[in-house]
Amino acid sequence: MVKKSQSIAINTIVILIIALVVLVIIILYFTGTFSKGTTGVNNIINPALNQTNQTSQLINNLSNQVNG
Questions:
Q1: 30 near 23, Cβ under 8 Å?
Q2: Whole-angstrom Cα distance, residue 68 to residue 44?
């Protein structure tokens, strides 16, 4: 005798995943993590941009010395 198990519908799984994502977003919003997250990204990007600007200035100064 073969017993069939009950399965969860795909729609139910998708709805549960969407509900969990929304719940995580709500928790992050109320704990203030969103505002911390954007400053964290800025702390990573700004030094990289500063390094790029310094490298560009160095290249320009070297080319001016060679040409001038």
A1: no
A2: 37
